């Protein structure tokens, strides 16, 4: 087992013990995600092969388009020709709420999420800069994309994991996360923001959020400060979980609102990176009296485990590469230092040669006199 894996397991055990000490409420029987079977695909009709030499049927000629001179109003908004001669109340036909996508309503696409489906787009009707629950959005509501969470004011940022204000965080998103974070559903650890060079490097100019840790995280970072403030004020924080989260409590697809939590602890510790840069850590605890969290089905969990194994292998390879890069950088620095020393020695020898030459010229001048 590599040093990275040893440190990872040690951190996970420590975080599990910390969460257990919070004394969170967890139901004895946890509900499983219910698999909704997808509708069978429609059978395609077989095209009968016609080997006869009959000539093809004549092509139908479309009738000329009817004019709207008699039916169209003298003035006003242009309307569809299909409604010619009809009295249509267009204002009453406007739908305020985004309908469920046709792929789901028609049964073509199924889902294991049993909660209500939120909007996927549209104008917000509530302010996401609110501490606590959002009116009309039930715990268990889910969305296909993050923009739906934003439209329903549960979690405003489309990408960022933390949203908050002066009195603490409004909401956080769990998606992916750090290798040593622990999610027990009703309590979890969360790693803060910052410490990565999002602008990239000369070798990797587009690292963005996949960039390795290159400096310490601090509570001076605005997002980390928000979560630390939540630990002090104990204002409730909305939590969504995404399908990329490596946890049995993650939804099989999309993003799900899992209710309100409080931040119980905030601390600094060495992160899982080659140089031991510090990271900000937080312990969340779910408020009691909320619907139980569904647990992933066995099939979905197996798929998630395979994805996790692939990601862990990739992370280990990246750690090895980072370590090699660091060692190469040290070698380059040593080599550069050696070259600088040689340059200094060469310069000193040149000065000595110049001094010797000047001394010989002075002696010649004296002899001439």
UniProtKB/TrEMBL annotation:
Matching InterPro entries: PUA-like_sf (IPR015947), SRA-YDG_sf (IPR036987), SRA_YDG (IPR003105), UHRF1/2-like (IPR045134)
Subcellular compartments: Nucleus
Compositional bias (Basic and acidic residues): 27-36, 118-129
Ranges of Acidic residues composition bias in the record: 303-325, 335-360
Biased composition (Basic residues): 37-46
GO biological process annotation, one example: protein ubiquitination
Polar residues biased stretches: 201-218
Domain YDG, first and last residues per copy: 132-286
Gene3D superfamilies according to UniProt: SRA-YDG
UniProt-listed Pfam families: SAD_SRA
Keywords assigned by UniProt, alphabetized: Nucleus
Region (Disordered): 22-133, 197-218, 295-369
GO molecular function: ubiquitin protein ligase activity
Record's GO cellular component terms: nucleus
Protein's recorded name: YDG domain-containing protein
